[in-house]
Specification:
By secondary structure, the protein is mainly alpha-helical. It has three domains: about 120 residues, P-loop containing nucleotide triphosphate hydrolases (Rossmann fold), CATH 3.40.50; about 130 residues, 434 Repressor (Amino-terminal Domain) (Orthogonal Bundle); about 50 residues. Helix content is about 60%, strand content about 5%. A four-stranded mixed β-sheet has the order 1-2-3-4. α2 links the parallel β1 and β2. It is flat, with a radius of gyration of 31 Å.
Length: about 350
Amino acid sequence: KLKCDTIVYDTAGRLAIDEPLMKELHDIRSSIEPQNVFLVVDAMIGQDSVKTAKSFHDLLGLSGIILTKLDGDARGGAAISIKNVTGTAVKFVGTGESLDRLEEFRADGMASRILGMGDVVGLMKDFEEVVDEKKAEQDARRMLRGQFTLDDFLEQLQTLQSMGPLQDLLDKVPFFAESVPEGFQVDEREIGQIKAIVSSMTRQERARGELFQKQPTRIIRVARGSGTSEKQVAEILQRFAFMKQMMGSIGSQAGMLSKIPGMKQLAAANRLRDAVKTGGLEGNPMMANLADSLLEAAIAEQGGGRPGSGPAPKRIVDKGKKKSKRKMQKKSRRKSRR
């Protein structure tokens, strides 16, 4: 009839101590018989949210909790307490005012947030939602070759903006909060200024940033066109030059390392050994031995001993002993055939 498969009944906010309003809520629940009942809890009130959740759960039988205002200073420790006291899980979290800032609750992400370790998985999820993985890989390879233009710079900024508020993204970076002064806030207007500056450049200027060094008068024209100062334009060009240089140096180092004999094998062996550890396979002798054998083989190919032991000494081989050993092996094989 209504051409929809979901109806959300949003009731007015109320306190658990307000008996007439709580009775009204109970009557609404009885009349509409909802499939799910969610309680929206403000993360900023901390442990007081536990008492509120328990009162509502006892009256209505909650299906889950929605924890809001996690884009503020609250880390969300109340989520653990609510689950422990009521047995009701947090289903969604709100990190902003718009509908797209309502996210599915992930326990590992919340645990990392509470410990101040950011939320790498959430950050990658945000990135995957707005970025074409194949294109991102191609762009990364091109940038590591030093082919980084102001168009790429602008595109990176636009990608960041489409992922949501920059402060939210930085909060998900591990240990970021500990590395910045207290009360630090990202100025979103600065990104707008950078976009205006780059957009005021010609196509040729965006492709070849060095043109501004050859003809500094171009900076004056861009500053007028973007409504910014010449100093701001010069600072953006300086940042861009630094990023381009950094990308190129990372790419050249990666290229040089890959040419060292055994370096690729060493990296693969290390990845396998890490996978054995993180995957809980250390108790599996076959997998553990395989990882160690590959690691030793890769180190040997580089001419080294065990990790950190320096170059392996050359073994002196006695040819006579080697020959007699082969004869003994042949005899034992003949006996086994009989």
